[in-house]
Design a protein that fits this description.
This is PhnA domain-containing protein. This protein has about 190 residues and is α+β, with helices and mostly antiparallel strands. The chain is built from 6 helices and 12 strands. It has a 3-stranded antiparallel β-sheet, with no helix packed on it. Strands 9-10-11 form a 3-stranded antiparallel β-sheet, with no helix packed on it. Helix 4 crosses helix 6. The longest helix has 13 residues. The model has no long low-confidence stretch (mean pLDDT about 90).
C-alpha cells in the first residue's frame, strides 16, 4: 500500500490538521527527505499553501489545531506545534502550545526548522545571488563540486530538488545528487 493511501486510510480521507476533504495531498515534514507514514501528514490545499508560506497565514483557519494537536500520530502533533509556533503572537496559540506534550525526540524534530525562534534569531540561507533558500526548494549547481569521501563529482547545471537547510549553519544545505545525499555550500547554488 502506498504512503498516500495509508495516510488517507488513517485520516478517513480528511485533512489531518483541519478536517477538510478538498484537494488533499501528502506533505513530508521537513527536514525529513523520506516519504513514510511516520514523517508525512495528509493536508488540504489551504493548509499546504499556508504551511509552505505561499499564502498569508489566516489565524482563524488554524483554530482547528485545538483538536488536531491531540492526534495520536506524532507527525500531526509536530505540524500542529509548528503552526502554533508561527502564530504565537496571536495569543491563543501560546495557550495551546503550553498544553501540548511532545516527547524529547518529537520536540527535537518539531524544533528542527526553527519555527519556535524569533525572526531576528533565525538563520537565513541565501544562494549565490542572495535569494533566500528554504526547505523544499530546488537549486542548480553553478560549478562542478567534488563530494568528500566519494569519487562522485556533482556537475555544474545539476538540479538538486527538495533541499533541506542546516538550521545551525547558514552556508550548508542538504540534497540528493543521484542517489547520494550530500551537503552543499550555498555559495555554489542558484535557486530554480
Amino acid at each position: 500500500m502506498s504512503v498516500l493511501q495509508t495516510l488517507k486510510d488513517r485520516s478517513n480521507s480528511t485533512c489531518e490538521l483541519c478536517t477538510s476533504t478538498n484537494a488533499l495531498s501528502q506533505y513530508t515534514i521537513p527536514p525529513s527527505l523520506n516519504e513514510n507514514v511516520a514523517n508525512d501528514v495528509l493536508v488540504c490545499k489551504t493548509c499546504l499553501d499556508q504551511i509552505e508560506e505561499k499564502e498569508e497565514m489566516d489565524p482563524n483557519h488554524w483554530r482547528c489545531l485545538n483538536d488536531s494537536m491531540w492526534s495520536e500520530h506524532i507527525a500531526v502533533q509536530i505540524m500542529a506545534w509548528r503552526m502554533l509556533q508561527r502564530l504565537r503572537n496571536e495569543g491563543w496559540p501560546k495557550d495551546l502550545v503550553d498544553m501540548m506534550y511532545l516527547d524529547d525526540e518529537a520536540l527535537a524534530l518539531a524544533r528542527a526548522t526553527g519555527e519556535h525562534e524569533d525572526a531576528a534569531n533565525k538563520i537565513i540561507h541565501r544562494d549565490v545571488n542572495g535569494v533566500i533558500l528554504d526547505n523544499g526548494d530546488s537549486v542548480v549547481l553553478i560549478k562542478d563540486l567534488k563530494v568528500k569521501g566519494s569519487s562522485l563529482v556533482a556537475k555544474q547545471g545539476t538540479a538538486v530538488r527538495n533541499i533541506r537547510v542546516d538550521r545551525e549553519n547558514d552556508k550548508y544545505i542538504e540534497g540528493k545528487v543521484g542517489a547520494q545525499q550530500i551537503v552543499i555550500i550555498t555559495d555554489y547554488v542558484k535557486k530554480l
